[in-house]
Each structure stands twice: as C-alpha cells, then as structure tokens.
Amino acid sequence: MLEKKEVSIPDLVDESFKRIAAVDGDVKAFITLDEENARKQAEEAQSAGKTGILSGIPIGVKDNIVTKGLRTTAASQILRNFDPIYDATVVNKLHEAGTITVGKLNMDEFAMGSSTENSSFQKTRNPWNLNHVPGGSSGGSAASVAAGEVPFSLGSDTGGSIRQPASFCGVVGMKPTYGRVSRFGLIAFASSLDQIGPITRNVEDNAHLLEAIVGIDPHDSTSANVPAEKFSANLTGDIKGLRIAVPKEYLGEGVSEEVRQSVLSALKVLEGLGATWEEVSLPHSKYGVATYYLLASSEASSNLARFDGIRYGYRAENADNLIDLYKKTRAEGFGDEVKRRIMLGTFALSSGYYDAYYKKAQQVRTLIKKDFEDVLESYDVIIGPTTPTPAFKIGEIIDDPLTMYANDILTIPVNLAGVPGISVPCGFAENGLPLGLQIIGHHFDEKTVYRVAHAYEQATDFHKQKPGL
Amino acid sequence: MTRISEEQVRHVAHLARLAVTDEEVHTFTEQLDAIITFAEQLNELDTSNVKPTSHVLNMKNVLRKDESAPGLDREDVLKNAPDQQDGQIRVPSIIE
C-alpha cells in the first residue's frame, strides 16, 4: 500500500492511534504510548521519501525490550519508572528499517506467565472475546495485532510466549532459532531460552519483519554468525515432497478434541498441496514442563538479582541496612509469580540440591534436544498444535501455577531444543476462539518453516477473519 | 512427604533477598512443594551417562578484541538511580 503511495505514513500512524483510542480501553494491550514522537517520525519519514518495505509501518514493542527515552517496565512495579539509556539491538534495527514505534506492550511481569494476568499494570483481554485471556507472556503483542491497533509487533519467547498468545489471538507468531536474533536490550528472563520474534497478521509480513531484526551482534555473545536470509523470497506456495513429522505426543492426552481435529484438517490441506506426513515420537516431551521450570527459574533467579533498588528502578523506604533494603525493595517491587520462580530457582541452585534439580534438568534437556535431532534427521518440519486448548477465561487458572504451566507443554520443548517454531491460525473452537498450528523446523531453517506456513495460510482463509471488536 | 519445609522457604527467601511474611511463607511452601514434587518426575529417567546442556548452539569461548571504548555518561548512569548525591549513587550505611 505504501509503495503504491495509496496511504501516507502520517495517515498510517494516525490510523493506528485512532484504532488504539477506539479499542484499547477494552483490550488494554498497551502500557505506554509514544504518540507525539511517533507522529513526528512519521512526518520526517514521509518527507524523506523512504521506500524500504517496512518504512513507516507502525509497530508495537513488548515492554521487556528497552527503548531509549521511552519507559520500559517489563510490566513490573520494580521498573515502573525506568527510562532506558540505550536502545535494544532489535530496536536499532527497526529504526534502520524505518518502522515507527507507537508504544510498549503489556506482558506477564518479566515474561513469567501464560496469560498476561501477571502484569502489575493491567490485564490484557482477548480481542475475540474480552472475557478470555490473550495468552502470554507476549499477550499485549498478540492482542494489539489481532485488534488491528498495529500491523506488526515484537514479542519474546522463552517457553512459548510468542506462539501461545499468537495462537490464542488468531495471528502469526514466530520464535526464531536460538541465536538468530540479538538479545541485547531484552530484559533477561532465562538467557539460554529467550528469543525475540515477530507477531503479524500474515506469514509474509512476519518473514519481512524477521529479516529486519536478525544477525550477529557484538553486544550478544550468544547471537549466531549465520548469514541473513530473504525468508520472504522463499514463499513460493510449493511444498511438493515436503516430509512432515507429527509427534503422537502432540495429539494425545491433554489435547482437546477440537484442537486435534483442527490439526488433522490442516494436515489434509498440506497433503493436498503435495506434502506427506507420518506419525513420530518425541518420547521426552512430557518431561519438558518440569525441565523448563527448573532451568528457566534457575536462570531467572540469577538474572533478576540485578533488581536491587540501588542503580535503577524502585527502592523501598525505611530500610535499616543494605540487606534489609534489598529484601524490602524486592518484596515490594516483584509480584507473586516472579517471587515464586526466583525462590524455585534459588532452591534448585542451592547447595545440596543443585545436582538433584538443576543438573538433572540440564541432562533431561539434552534428551529433549536429541528427540528433535532424531526426528528432524528424516523430516523437513514437525507439525502439531501450538496449545492444547483455545484461550481460557480470565481468572480461570491464575491461582493454580501447575495448571497454568501445563499450557506451554507443546511450545516449551522447542525452546529447550533451540529450534525455530511458528504459530499460524488453523481454525476456530466451538466458542469462536482461534486455534493455532505450530510448525517447527531445523536449526536456522526459518526459511522452510515460513514456506510451509505460507503455503498453508494461502490455502485457507482463517487469517482473513477478524474479531468483531 | 513434603519436599520443602517452611524453614527452608525462609532460608531460600533470605538467599534470594526477598522479605516474606508468615502468610507468604505458608503459601510459597505449599506451592513450591507441589512444583518440586511435580519436577521429581524427572527421576524416572536414567541420566547417569547424559551430558548436561546449558546452551543449544555449538559455540564456545566467544571472544572480542580487548579494546577500550567510551563508558556511559555519568548523567545517564544517574538518571535512573533512586537516590544520589554529588554525582554518586547514595546507599544506606554499609559499615556498622
């Protein structure tokens, strides 16, 4: 549209803010808006006549990605007034590509959660049904795109936090291969699992946005030295001869019948396009959730030690001494789920328990990773549902951590193995809420994942349906 | 059998520098006990010959050149500090 000059950049940005004004009172996707700055940038971009494919596209950024001079909270009270002094590498790359950041998106506090109910600011609601959660932790990122407030957003995914909300909100969400995108400026939760990725309304947009943010970064020693690729140039619609693996564990116990049926229908569509599929096993899948909670919480307990009330963030008053200051600051600044995970991680790493819990989980991670390697030796992609059920109701399981954790059973193993995975819309549940198809690929083979996702999307019309907000 | 006692939860909270009320200790003990019990399903697996994975990519010893670069501006550093004086971050007394 922009290329054809059908719309001006200021109009596009204006449209985004108008839509936010109309629906965000209900959806509550944004924590902070940057309207004045965004409008100014839009005028500048228009007069500069930039022509890049992403030039002038409004984007929302998850609030755990630091933006210079724009408040970044990770949805935590401990960072409620935090004003970053630098931009995350992905934000710099967005500037280069010419997108316009309209604001910062709500999330579970420090990305810990699967419903965005753990935000200390507000509960984001699912645009398809406001009584339901949008998923999490990138709930604001998925809801804002589904609600038409922004065409693009960035999320982060540690155990499913891009794919699960994308599935719940009927949009496209990609977790790239670990190392594909720099984590510099992403407020760390679990460093060996975290990845930033794009959420969009369709696969082609998603591929373009990922192209803009990938690459090795001297500021992130875990970013991988692999060549940038034109994922969008590979969306041919041709998947003849594609070999699909369908893990029986992904269609078994705990997965609802309507989710199962939607995936089987999707496999028929893919067969119709010339692909073949076979049932396989990822035998250690059921251990994924336990492994993940031990490892992610252990890493979090270390990463979140930096929030001590000294250099930045909230500081408690009336502390007797330094230790007391740390303890009060953290007790008042962190929410319950964050405390629970810090304590679980501290316990798993503590003397006498390290081998039994942390090291054991690292060993099981090896087995889970090997499951994926074994299957991918003979197949191009692995396909299953993104989540066992459609979006649940707000408040339904918030008091039951283990049930909440079980939501991520189909997405967590992908992070543990470090492979890329996307969620694309694949139907609707009886109650009208969207369902997502998860497509998982080889390390650094986002190209194939996108090609399959695009071929499927073009053969269906689920992505064209919009919530009646 | 309980996996974690209230006393242990208090100790862990201290290690994690979190002040906890008696009520929180009670709730966290129950919840952590359930989570740890759940996590013990990993013991069904024999991992005696399995190497631990801390990182999924095949990269080791990522080094950079040892070159000096400008540090952060003092003004920037102090911008988010909750308490400061004379260009320094102020903290409670740390020596008795």
UniProtKB/TrEMBL annotation, chain B:
GO MF, one annotated term: asparaginyl-tRNA synthase (glutamine-hydrolyzing) activity
Function: Allows the formation of correctly charged Asn-tRNA(Asn) or Gln-tRNA(Gln) through the transamidation of misacylated Asp-tRNA(Asn) or Glu-tRNA(Gln) in organisms which lack either or both of asparaginyl-tRNA or glutaminyl-tRNA synthetases. The reaction takes place in the presence of glutamine and ATP through an activated phospho-Asp-tRNA(Asn) or phospho-Glu-tRNA(Gln).
Transferase as UniProt keyword: yes
Protein name, as recorded: Aspartyl/glutamyl-tRNA(Asn/Gln) amidotransferase subunit C
InterPro entries for the chain: Asp/Glu-ADT_sf_sub_c (IPR036113), GatC (IPR003837)
Enzyme class at the top of the EC tree: ligase
Region (Disordered): 68-96
Listed transmembrane segments: none
PANTHER family in UniProt: GLUTAMYL-TRNA(GLN) AMIDOTRANSFERASE SUBUNIT C, MITOCHONDRIAL
EC number: 6.3.5.-
One example of a Gene Ontology biological process annotation: regulation of translational fidelity
Catalysis: reaction(s): L-glutamyl-tRNA(Gln) + L-glutamine + ATP + H2O = L-glutaminyl-tRNA(Gln) + L-glutamate + ADP + phosphate + H(+); L-aspartyl-tRNA(Asn) + L-glutamine + ATP + H2O = L-asparaginyl-tRNA(Asn) + L-glutamate + ADP + phosphate + 2 H(+)
Summary of subunit composition and partner proteins: Heterotrimer of A, B and C subunits.
SUPFAM superfamilies, per database record: Glu-tRNAGln amidotransferase C subunit
Classification via NCBIfam families: gatC
Keywords: ATP-binding, Ligase, Nucleotide-binding, Protein biosynthesis, Transferase
Skewed-composition ranges (Basic and acidic residues): 68-78
Alphabetized Pfam families for the sequence: GatC
